[in-house]
Design goal:
The chain is mainly α and 57 residues long. It has a domain at 27-57. Helices cover 70% and strands 0% of the residues. It is built from 2 helices and no strands. It has helices spanning 10-25, 27-50. Helix 1 (10-25) packs antiparallel against helix 2.
Length: 57
């Protein structure tokens, strides 16, 4: 099992729902003001996790 099926951890699902509500409420504002910062934070976190430069993610 590679995790594509089954229950999602509650904190992960709650975070997902929070982002989804934000996107649904103000999609243009989210895309213009928030999405790039969130992607950058994700790249930084993932790069740290796999021990590489964020530009390589």
């Amino acid at each position: 099992n590679h995790g594509s099926y089954g229950a999602c951890p509650k904190p992960v699902f709650e975070a997902y729902q929070s982002y989804q509500q934000t996107v649904e409420h103000q999609p243009i504002q989210f895309m213009e003001d928030e999405v790039y910062d969130l992607l950058e934070r994700s790249r930084t976190a993932l790069a740290s996790y796999v021990h590489c430069d964020k530009d390589d993610v």
